[in-house]
Amino acid sequence: MKENKYDDNRFFSQYSKMDRSVEGLKGAGEWYILQKMLPDFTGKRVLDLGCGFGWHCIYAIEHGAAHVTGIDISEKMLEEARKRTPFSQVEYKCMAIEDFDYRPDSYDIVISSLAFHYLESFADICRKIHNCLTKGGSFVFSVEHPIFTAYGNQEWYYDSEGNRIHWPVDRYFTEGKRTAVFLGEEISKYHKTLTTYINGLLQTGFEICELVEPQPDEVMLNTIPDMKDELRRPMMLLISARKKVEMQTNEIQAIGK
């Protein structure tokens, strides 16, 4: 996660033109599903990891959250977030997700959008989040789907006429660093299997409430060119989990490892 392309002027300019940057949550193709997976924010303390322009932070406050902390490594991102956020209950901090102080029982809800595939270890972040959540606290996040990240370059295979033939999946069980081109820049990401995501939660004291591989909604399918190709492979993985109220001794020991 400590690689930070977003403070590069050219890259940030390109990112700022994306639908999810311009239109906010309604410009994010997965939002119509993710929104339904979020818990009740009323009176809750919320932590947003990789908050970007602050759209989820704003949403949480608008839906009753008492306080929201947004973490992002990019000062340019946070500069935009502060411009867009009219609420004093939102606090933004510029730092890597790995460097945040996850104090015990300090948050009721932790959310994250498309950030954890930049982290090398999912188990490590799960342990930290488990530590900072209150008992029964909610953890909801999105990541790039393992089928999307496995091969690495995140590009279709094309025939000689430029038609999309298929999406390559290779080295699925070889987890680790991958290099993809995003907005004209090489970006480092970390491929993880679905097993790693699920067991990372279960082995650190969470219970899984819901798992969704979202498809584009009908409006996007009918209005955005090439969107129907998104039905040919999953691009994202959404998971809702909850910190267990009671844990067995072996689960407590596993979290400490």
From TrEMBL:
Methyltransferase type domain segment(s): 47-141
GO BP, sorted A to Z: methylation
Record keyword DNA-binding present: no
GO molecular function, one term: S-adenosylmethionine-dependent methyltransferase activity
Keyword list, A-Z: Methyltransferase, S-adenosyl-L-methionine, Transferase
Top-level taxon: Bacteria
Protein name: Class I SAM-dependent methyltransferase
Annotated source species: Bacteroides faecium
Lineage: Bacteria, Pseudomonadati, Bacteroidota, Bacteroidia, Bacteroidales
